[in-house]
Amino acid sequence: MPETSRIARLRVTLDDTKPTIWRAVEVPLSASLKLLHEVIQAAMPFQDYHLFEFREGAVRYAIPDSEWAGRETRSAKTTKLGALVGRGTSTFTYTYDFGDNWQHTVTVEKVGPADPEVAYPRFLDGARRAPPEDVGGTMGFEEFLEAVTKPRHPERKRMLEWYGGPFDPDALDREAIETGMTKLARRRSIGQAAFAMSRGHFQR
Question: Alpha-carbon distance 137 to 100, whole Å?
Answer without folding.
Answer: 4
